[in-house]
Amino acid sequence: MKCVENLSDRGIIEVESSQNFLVNKRGDNKIAKKLLFTTPFLRFWFAFVSPIYKGIKEGNFKEFNEKYEGRKADFSDFIFDELGLELTTDLYKDDQIKNMGKYWDENIEVSIVAKTKSGKIIAGNCKQNNSKLKKSDLNKLKADCEAIGLKPDTFILFTKKGFTSELKSMKSDSIKLLTTRNLKILLEDKK
After folding, report:
1. What is the CATH number of the domain that holds 170?
2. What's the rounded Cα separation, in Å, for the pair 127 and 124?
3. How high is the pLDDT of residue 127?
4. pLDDT tens-digit profile of 156-182?
């Protein structure tokens, strides 16, 4: 734990825990915490380079290529989820996000769980797949929220490839549909 505290104090890692407080599971000790490297470079280095550094140093990239191909989806999905969280924060500038993170347990994972200053609950999922999201994706998110006792005021779906016509027709103030095109608002804020 001293090493974890030291790395955390230096800003190299952070401890992430499931947003149990939003679903009234504060005392649930079964929920594990995750240690996350704070920058994409550090995540990449310690996931793919450091464990096989000797082979890479000797010019052997076969093991790296195999390891990267097997886990690149996990690596990019994490970054996609982080972009979804940033986009959600930006969408709620008028009613600032008070608490935000992810929820997970043994059976369910919700990419975005947030509470605004006014008390609104937001739940969302980020999907970086190569097909359009369907109504069933929204229904799964709703079912997951119900299963964990979360009662969101707004559902957010963030994806790379867009949405079916059926799902687009459901878009409203309580169902927000976002794609990678919406990320441009993050860049506009930086100007």
Report:
1. 3.40.1350
2. 10
3. 92
4. 999 999 999 999 999 999 999 999 998
Task: Classify residue 113 as exposed, middle or buried by CB count within 10 Å of its CB (0-12, 13-18, 19+).
Answer: buried
Give the residue carrying structure tokens 């505290």: 5
Cβ contact 145:124 at 8 Å: no
- Report the predicted TM-score, pTM, of the whole model to 2 decimal places: 0.80
The reported pLDDT for the residue numbered 74 is 81
When divided into structural domains, the chain yields a total of: 1
> In which domain, by residue range, is 184 found?
2-190
Collapse the DSSP code of 108 into the 3-class scheme (helix H, G, I; strand E, B; otherwise coil) and give the result: coil
| 125/56 Cα distance (integer angstroms) | 36
Tokens 């690149």 label which residue? 72
Q: 141: burial class by Cβ within 10 Å (0-12, 13-18, 19+)?
A: buried
**pLDDT of 90 higher than 80:** yes
**Hey, what amino acid is at 141?**
L
> What whole-number distance in Å separates Cα of residue 72 and Cα of residue 130?
15
- Side chain identity at residue 189, one-letter code: D
Instruction: Residue 107: count other Cβ atoms within 10 Å of its Cβ.
Output: 8
Measured in residues, the chain has a length of 191
d(CA 138, CA 166): 11
Q: Dihedral of CA 104/110/115/116: which sign?
A: positive
3-state SS assignment for residue 123:
strand
Residue type, 30: K
